[in-house]
Amino acid sequence: MARTDGDTWDLASGVGATATAVAASRALANRATLIDDPWAEPLVKAVGMEVFLRILDGNIDSDDAESDLRRMAQGMAVRTRYFDDFVIDATASGIRQTVILASGLDARPYRLTWPASTGVFEIDQPGVIDFKTTTLRNLGATPTADLHTIGVDLRDDWPGALRASGFDPSQPTAWIAEGLLIYLPPEAQDRLFDHITALSPVGSRLATEFMPSMGAFTGESGEPDDDGQERWRKLGFHDDLADLVYHGERSHVIDYLNGLGWQVTGDLMQELFEANGFESHDDEMAEKFTGFQYISAALTSTN
Ligand SMILES: C[S@@+](CC[C@H](N)C(=O)[O-])C[C@H]1O[C@@H](n2cnc3c(N)ncnc32)[C@H](O)[C@@H]1O
């Protein structure tokens, strides 16, 4: 089923299941000691989706399971380290306010060491926010920052909800939008960056991704492309990612941010793989992500 305006989900359905998939990869990366995220595995287990429980149990019917799982763990380690380092650099520079947009099962407000009195604001759909917050509390996790959770749809008036929860737009802020953009309609992606900019004084920072095309999700014919999803499918996750993302022309993220006064630096995923000491691949899957970058930006002027 294609996306509709105002559709909702929890962590076991629709777009929400992608947050659980990502957390399952973090759990594998944590087990391989590539990252330190002790909460990913218990969170995935609490969601209880059979496919991810089987992956964590190693109960997978695929010849390439071992290499597929290793590559997933390494890919997630690259991603997690990138956004962790972004936050650590931002706080080291004196930024004391962070907003994690589409936080999913991200446990940064519980697992990173934040300077005293740092405000962290997590935004996601109400069902996602409530489940994670309650589950972590029941697991005995305590936030390591001054945590504010906001259950709101990012296609709606999220800036209003953010301000109402105590966010201070006069303070430089570090914004994270990790694994979010493809799940927003193209115009909502532009609006997201417009809102972020309007809520940010000069000196604020932003980390997100740049996907040069949606080709990893849709074949040239316009039909859903199986290859891009082959790995998850082999592991038993049959949700059609092509139905979860929004297709069609969208703004070039880097150009759009430049136009709003952000100075952007990008790192190609392939290069980050090598920089992290992992073998890079040049198979069909890697080809579809050619040009994919993790990007960090600093607001240097306001229009
Ligand atoms: C792939 S997951 C990434 C989660 C998290 N950032 C991470 O990296 O673990 C995508 C997340 O985007 C959230 N999301 C997508 N569209 C959203 C919307 N319109 N409003 C709120 N959250 C949204 C989903 O609920 C989900 O948690």
Automatic annotation (TrEMBL):
Its EC number is 2.1.1.-. Keywords: Methyltransferase, S-adenosyl-L-methionine, Transferase. It comes from the Bacteria. InterPro entries: Ppm1/Ppm2/Tcmp, SAM-dependent_MTases_sf, SAM_mthyl_Trfase_ML2640-like. One of its GO terms (molecular function) is methyltransferase activity. GO terms for biological process: methylation. Belongs to the UPF0677 family. Exhibits S-adenosyl-L-methionine-dependent methyltransferase activity. This is S-adenosyl-L-methionine-dependent methyltransferase.
